[in-house]
Amino acid sequence: MSAAAQPQAKPDGAALAASVRAVARAAKDAAAALSLASAAERTAALKAMAAAIREDAALILAANDKDMVAASGLTPALKDRLKLDASRVEAMAKGVEEVAALPDPLGQVMAEWDRPNGLHIARVRVPLGVIAIIYESRPNVTADAAALCLRAGNAAILRGGSESVNSSGAILASLKRALKSTGLPEGAVMRVPVQDRAAVGELLKLDDLIDVVIPRGGKSLIERVAAESRIPVLKHLDGNCHTYVDGAADLAMARRIVLNAKMRRTGICGATETLLVDRRVAKTYLPPILDDLAKAGCELRGDSETRALDHRVTLANDTDWDTEYLDAIIAVKVVDGVDEAIAHINRHGSHHTEAIVTADEKAAAKFMAEVDAGIVIHNSSTQFADGGEFGMGAEIGISTGKLHARGPVGAEQLTSYKYLVRGSGQVRP
Amino acid sequence: MSAAAQPQAKPDGAALAASVRAVARAAKDAAAALSLASAAERTAALKAMAAAIREDAALILAANDKDMVAASGLTPALKDRLKLDASRVEAMAKGVEEVAALPDPLGQVMAEWDRPNGLHIARVRVPLGVIAIIYESRPNVTADAAALCLRAGNAAILRGGSESVNSSGAILASLKRALKSTGLPEGAVMRVPVQDRAAVGELLKLDDLIDVVIPRGGKSLIERVAAESRIPVLKHLDGNCHTYVDGAADLAMARRIVLNAKMRRTGICGATETLLVDRRVAKTYLPPILDDLAKAGCELRGDSETRALDHRVTLANDTDWDTEYLDAIIAVKVVDGVDEAIAHINRHGSHHTEAIVTADEKAAAKFMAEVDAGIVIHNSSTQFADGGEFGMGAEIGISTGKLHARGPVGAEQLTSYKYLVRGSGQVRP
């Protein structure tokens, strides 16, 4: 990264720790204020954010140009991720407006009841507090993540990839301007002051100021965060998703679903990576399914039974079953019915999204009960694993952990709760 | 700890890691089976556990005698915690029966809806999986924790304090016998094979096999677990709870509540540690309140204003405001109304349980909205912070974290969920 791309010169260890702490402190102070802001105030701030992004489009694009120049060595895919243009800036503003239109989750009474001693107990939704989000060099995530956090009354500390530092900085400046104009604290969106790994290390120590850390991106980043963090982590790990075509599947439906699950978009975490096919139908179903995939440009890797059915299939090795390709490659395995499919998925899957195609309700019920994943789908495409497709509005990712939130993480999943107990002088016997 | 008290000789590092891993693997295999067991099967196993504890009472008491002999150097309070007798064994069996009678949380449809494309989405309660519980030398927790985990379909890995190793081992043997007799896997209750810190260190690395770790007990243990663990932690930290007596409080109610909140039981996490009193009423309310406390045997520490009202009050220093005494000691401070009370609590409290006594609904509403704690109480005693008192049945503790579970952690809080998506061939456009 060029020196020009750094928000400020790199300080020594103690100064770094102090500056990261100051950022987190500002966020925590803002979170206290945000938790008391009304839904209408937060909605107004979100609308102002969208407007500020539109107004500052030229500034944001100029900052992005700087990033693109510095990023000349990146792969085309990474450059495409980093690149902004007028329509992408407009999409970002629209995304923030959509979050502004989401139902406000705060204050909702999740449950309430009376005790025999007359105490009234209510469980009420409250913000989590301060959320740190560590993400790839995707400038739009800066706006998306900040907006979703604000909808749920949380302050956000953002740490995007180094390559996007100027773009993210310009977007952040717009968001802060909007917050200020609506009277909410600018500390509601903060970013890590220095763009290096040591700053993230300091951040992950601040469990007295930060309530949750959400890492997005590569598996190694996420594992590093999970290993280092003293703060609770909402993991967005890899999606090694499977589609299992059962012996009782309708062939036309299976072809349509497999092709979509693998090839609609290969780079998303809900894309199918391994196809499992019931031995009962492998000889008749696999040839057309494999042909669809090959014609769509998919590389085929398979076990020996699959290979025997199509000369384009290369032999899969053991690591293929554990690989999230995020690419036009599929691993294919013939299995002995739903039981072997479930066993294979529970061994090799990443607990993200798993699908079965079958007309046999009993097999489907078994699969849905026994597969250990956040999302289990019957007769549809794994590519539906998405907060928007679930009707939850925007999402910050898909959680593969079991604690707090599993599956799509939207505004509601970015909340906690508290118990409000109302009495009339009761003491405990 | 004597050599006799160890379950087995202390192995070297690699062997230790392997033996801890084998325990966790057995628990994970059992968890898969448990998640498919019916509510009736788990209820039957819980009832069999209670019966086994009763049948094995003599064995359990003999094991406890061994622990008590080895524990001769402990303080009376710790010895009392460790000691079992016939009535405590019976109470343990009864506790397990109560868990057997709790509503089963699994399979519950938490929400369901249809999408415009015809997909049906349901969020359904499932077990967390494998829960590791690290606790004090309280033998009864072995049965309580195992039972609550089983009610929610989870396997438990238990690690009680060293001093209780024989008692816990005997109780565990009874529980396993009961599981076996009802056809559920014995791996549903496991314990760490070796009683030393290194074994806990190995356990905390196993994020591929263990889903949650719940540390109970001292602050230093919990902080060590939070710092070291790669597994998500449900923290049960200290309860530095406050009772604030507002200027609009009824004096008789305030006296009754403060005395109960502090002195009913001083060793529980919901006991009030600091009393805050509104300056408007300090001169008239504090003398009788302090007198009640002193007569009940409570040591009084306070700020200079409090001291001026009662000669028995010694001057509190800065650490008093941050201390969970768990003893008959109270810190007392005069504050400038509800705003200063909230600020003091949010600065010094541990986000556990906080109470306000007032007849002013506006002050109460402000306190309940702005105090950042799992439980906020109006006109009642902080000692009600308890899963049983909340009507949730047994609890494993009070969570002071904001993620996943806040406040009492009962069977429902020991669950996760999964999304079941049912389609008819839909693919994503």
Number of domains of chain A: 2
By CATH, the topology of the largest domain in chain A is: Aldehyde Dehydrogenase, Chain A, domain 1
Percent range for β-strand residues of chain A: 15-25%
Q: Which strands sit side by side, in order, in the main sheet of chain A?
A: 10-9-11-8-7-12-13
Assigned CATH superfamily of the largest domain in chain A: Aldehyde Dehydrogenase, Chain A, domain 1
- Uncertain residue ranges of chain A: 1-6
Largest protein-protein interface: A-B, 64 and 64 residues
The ordered string of helix (H) and strand (E) elements of chain A is: HHHHHEEEHEHEHEHEHEHEHEEHEHEEEE
Catalytic activity (chains A, B): L-glutamate 5-semialdehyde + phosphate + NADP(+) = L-glutamyl 5-phosphate + NADPH + H(+)
Subcellular location (chains A, B): Cytoplasm
GO cellular component, one term (chains A, B): cytoplasm
Protein name (chains A, B): Gamma-glutamyl phosphate reductase
